Amino acid sequence: MALDQKALQKKRAKRELKRRQTKPAASGLPGALSRASVWANVGRAPIADVFVPANIFELGIGTVWVSRSLPDGRYALAGMVVDVFCLGIKDALYKIVDAAEYPTVLARIRGNLTESVETQHPSYARKLVEEALAYAKDLGFEPHADYRIARLIFGDIDAGACPVSFTFGKDGKPFYINGPNDTPAIQRRIVKQLERRCGPGRYDYLVMV
Question: Which of 14, 96, 103, 175 could make an S-S bridge to 85, C-beta 3.0–4.6 Å?
């Protein structure tokens, strides 16, 4: 299986490295409580853009982006790195940017050829993220800590308005592919958890060394 999946793993590693190199910093406000208080009202602002990787169920991972236009002219932006094969929300980020900076951020998102992003309805993005989260939690994996703030971007979006059905995992089973920042210890922990939760032969994994 490792030989069959080598090209897929290289794509994932390249995509994740590129994402981390261009990852916007979180809001510069001091302290998690200050950030939460600002972001508590973000979810009621008008939706600006929603981008979802067109090939997320091919690669198994991709970043879902949602932005809103704030009353003061700035934009609130959140990205959630979603592993639809196994781990759910692997990473999350959030930022408030000035109107002048926003086009540059959009250009970076649209320029990510690995993910081939496409515009989607807000309900599609929320349903995809939250169902991937639920799938991973059922396997015993929690979302990235920054998702607690980033998820506030969804606000008043109704996931139930999305008619699309999503199927997680690969070929009917969870499929863990290690990322470039997954240490051997992390890899062992994830595989052991899959063994406990799913049992022998009921999950797949690919670890590149």
Answer: 175
